[in-house]
Specification:
The chain has helices spanning 10-16, 33-42, 60-67, 83-92, 128-136, 154-161, 171-179, 217-229, 235-238, 244-250, 264-275, and strands at 29-30, 50-54, 72-77, 97-101, 118-122, 147-153, 180-188, 193-194, 201-208. The protein has 277 residues and is α/β, with parallel strands linked by helices. The longest helix is centred in the C-terminal third of the chain and has 13 residues, at 217-229.
């Protein structure tokens, strides 16, 4: 028995290669090919694109990306048990799938591509935020990637896309909103996964802004870390080590405001002022 793409059903693949998900690797597999196809569609037209996928597992999303017409998919998987299953997909799509056995956190990912890829992934929960921060804080901008279509726990997705004044708004919101247009595309219920996580997940998209507001990256990271590290305090207290009330007054921001009240533009203004000291 095969699925519409001519490959065995994913549950059979998992049984054949003994791929029980490992909690320590943050693995939750998606077997529903209709759902993986929906994720692929959320990234837009793939017909003339290279795609980077991190944490493909047994290859459910990988198959959807190739079926959707991706020119080439580079799949990075640190769980060596999954490599044989992914190589089976590679044989079914000759020349279009490159499988890399390794840790995405330690691989020079930009060097794998001649043109900016779309990054599309059901990221492992335990490293998803770390990977995203690395992609958002790359030194060069526009970045080496074309767009991000990623799945996170709903709580993390809300933090990435949050706006000023909301409880979810924080350092990650500022960095993401500064450099990208962000949007939650749709939710994925726990029962869609094997094993089911305890929380709902969300697929989000991040499209890089061609010209983000002027701000030095390192200083912006410093300001947001200090401000949201003590988010319940007024900025004159949380930013005391960076100039506090003097810095805030100089740029026209009320010292009694709290971090969640400042928009991305205000944080950029603070970063520029601090970098000139």
């Amino acid at each position: 028995m095969t699925d519409p793409d001519g490959l065995p059903p994913l549950r059979q693949v998992v049984e054949r290669f003994d791929l029980a998900p490992k909690k320590k690797l943050g693995q939750n597999f998606l077997f529903d090919l209709n759902l993986t196809a929906k994720i692929a569609r959320a990234a837009g037209d793939l017909s003339d694109c290279d795609v980077l996928e991190v944490g493909p597992g047994p290859g459910g999303l990988t198959r959807a990306l190739l079926s959707a017409g991706a020119r080439r998919v580079v799949a990075v998987e640190r769980d060596s048990r999954c490599i044989a299953a992914l190589e089976q997909i590679s044989a079914h799509y000759p020349g279009r799938l490159k499988v890399i056995d390794g840790d995405a956190l330690s691989i020079n990912l930009p060097a794998l591509f001649d043109t900016p890829p779309k990054i599309i992934a059901n990221l492992p929960y335990n490293v998803g935020t770390e990977l995203l921060l690395g992609w958002l804080t790359t030194a060069d901008w526009p970045p080496w990637w074309q767009s991000l279509t990623l799945m996170f726990q709903r709580e993390v997705a809300e933090r990435i896309t949050a706006t000023p004044g909301s409880k979810a708004y924080g350092r990650l919101s500022v960095l993401a909103g500064w450099r990208c247009q962000t949007r939650i595309q749709f939710d994925v219920p726990p029962e869609a996964f094997t094993p089911p996580p305890k929380v709902t997940s969300s697929v989000i998209s991040l499209i890089p802004r061609a010209e983000p507001l002027d701000a030095p990256l390192k200083t912006l990271e410093q300001v947001t870390a200090a401000a949201f590290g003590q988010r319940r305090k007024m900025l004159r207290r949380s930013l005391a080590g960076l100039g506090g009330e003097d810095l805030l007054t100089r740029v026209g921001i009320e010292p009694t405001k709290r971090a969640e009240e400042l928009d991305v533009s205000a944080f950029c203004t603070l970063a520029r002022a601090l970098s000139k000291e």
